[in-house]
Automatic annotation (TrEMBL):
SUPFAM superfamilies: S-adenosyl-L-methionine-dependent methyltransferases. This is Arsenite methyltransferase. Residues 64-216 form the Methyltransferase domain. Belongs to the methyltransferase superfamily. Arsenite methyltransferase family. The gene is arsM. GO terms for molecular function: arsenite methyltransferase activity. Gene3D superfamilies: 3.40.5.100, Vaccinia Virus protein VP39. It holds the Pfam family Methyltransf_31. One of its GO terms (biological process) is methylation. The keyword Methyltransferase applies. It catalyses: arsenic triglutathione + [thioredoxin]-dithiol + S-adenosyl-L-methionine + 2 H2O = methylarsonous acid + [thioredoxin]-disulfide + 3 glutathione + S-adenosyl-L-homocysteine + H(+); arsenic triglutathione + 2 [thioredoxin]-dithiol + 2 S-adenosyl-L-methionine + H2O = dimethylarsinous acid + 2 [thioredoxin]-disulfide + 3 glutathione + 2 S-adenosyl-L-homocysteine + 2 H(+); arsenic triglutathione + 3 [thioredoxin]-dithiol + 3 S-adenosyl-L-methionine = trimethylarsine + 3 [thioredoxin]-disulfide + 3 glutathione + 3 S-adenosyl-L-homocysteine + 3 H(+). Keywords: Methyltransferase, S-adenosyl-L-methionine, Transferase. Its EC number is 2.1.1.137. InterPro entries: Arsenite_MeTrfase-like, Methyltranfer_dom, SAM-dependent_MTases_sf.
Length: 350
């Protein structure tokens, strides 16, 4: 376990100096960020952009005034984008274990605040481990949104990471993260290979084990907002790992005690009012729930909770409650789906 941590630190401090040093495209973002984020990117320092190793765009909307925590923030690209999105009344905390990464990130603090037109920086960087946020003074129920970009796969203690996230999130808070996943368990001999691990492949979570882990750590239901398959583009690495299919996925999960492990039908209907900045016509809760502005949509109890017991409630009207149960929500699958493009939702849900 300590070896994995030290090898990963070495990879991100000594082996990689910029995106060009990556051996595969697993830590390369193929997802086009939403328009609101594309507008902020030109305001971010080139040094930060050149050392961005994320595999997605885990920056949800409605962040103004929020406290956001970025796990494994690297040189801080997503921290600074979130800094602009939360505005001067919000706070962003970036955590990373590799001193060189944190130093580069922190070096740009004043310059970024100035580029955003802020009086003082709303960003704080902490050097430490995502498995032990308590040691960094991050209190229970203190964070509105946890983000992470291509990091949790690197952890040798993933259960501890998800437990810590659950602990620090406020009730109704959101976990929104992008990571590399595998369609099967990676043999142990390969999970400890420093290059495979460093490239975010060796430690990639098998999607069904991820679902089990999430359920165990408190998330009875979670959703994928995007799934794209990864083409490794490196013959040597393909020779070692070609038996597995890897994908980059973005996950949305809420800390809500009311979620059930299967989607249930209470006859609830949701209306989106079009007020989420950047989403005037529709809002995608996940990869199979698109809410068109003003159009009523029948939703399961879990989806209704996600839209009415979180910060998204200001943009949604929910008709009905959970007093009358009409059975399992129509369209739900039975149990885990082991197909290649499986687990569209984290539970056996709609
Ligand atoms: C693939 S990079 C991604 C960095 C950043 N999120 C980005 O998008 O550029 C992985 C980062 O996670 C950090 N990291 C890996 N495991 C960690 C752990 N257990 N605790 C804290 N940081 C960790 C590494 O130091 C590295 O900076």
């Amino acid at each position: 376990m300590d070896n994995i941590i030290e090898n990963v630190k070495d990879y991100y401090s000594k082996q990689l100096q910029s995106k060009d040093d990556l051996k595969t495209n697993s830590c390369c973002c193929s997802e086009k960020p939403p328009a609101e984020i594309r507008k902020i990117l030109p305001l971010i320092s080139n040094e930060i952009l050149n050392r961005f190793y994320g595999c997605g765009s885990p920056l949800p909307p409605l962040l103004e005034g929020m406290t956001v925590l970025d796990l494994g923030c690297g040189t801080g690209r997503d921290v600074y984008i979130a800094s602009k999105l939360v505005g001067e009344s919000g706070t962003v905390i970036g955590v990373d274990m590799t001193p060189e990464q944190i130093e580069t990130a922190a070096k740009h603090q004043d310059e970024q605040a100035e580029r955003f037109g802020f009086k003082t920086s709303n960003v704080k960087f902490l050097q430490g481990y995502i498995e032990d946020l308590k040691a960094l003074g991050i209190e229970d129920n203190s964070v509105d949104v946890v983000i992470s970009n291509c990091v949790i796969n690197l952890s040798p203690a993933k259960e501890q990471v998800f437990k810590e996230i659950y602990r620090v999130l406020k009730p109704g808070g959101e976990l929104f993260f992008s990571d590399v996943f595998a369609d099967r368990r990676i043999p142990e001999s390969l999970t400890t290979d420093p290059v495979l691990r460093g490239e975010c492949l060796g430690g990639a979570l098998y999607i069904e084990d991820f679902r089990r882990l999430m359920n165990k750590c408190g998330w009875a239901d979670f959703r994928y907002t995007s799934i794209s398959s990864i083409n490794l583009k490196n013959e040597e690495i393909e020779n070692k790992l070609g038996f597995a299919a890897f994908s980059s996925r973005t996950v949305r999960a809420f800390k809500l005690g009311t979620l059930e492990d299967v989607c249930e039908d209470y006859g609830q209907v949701a209306y989106y009012d079009g007020s989420i900045p950047g989403f005037p016509h529709f809002f995608d809760l996940d990869d199979h729930h698109r809410f068109f502005t003003g159009k009523p949509m029948l939703v399961c109890g879990n989806t209704a909770s996600m839209l009415s017991e979180t910060r998204y409630k200001k943009a949604f009207k929910i008709i009905g409650d959970k007093k009358t149960h009409y059975g399992k929500f129509d369209g739900c699958s039975d149990g885990a789906d082991n197909s290649k493009e499986s687990a569209k939702t984290g539970s056996s849900c709609c």
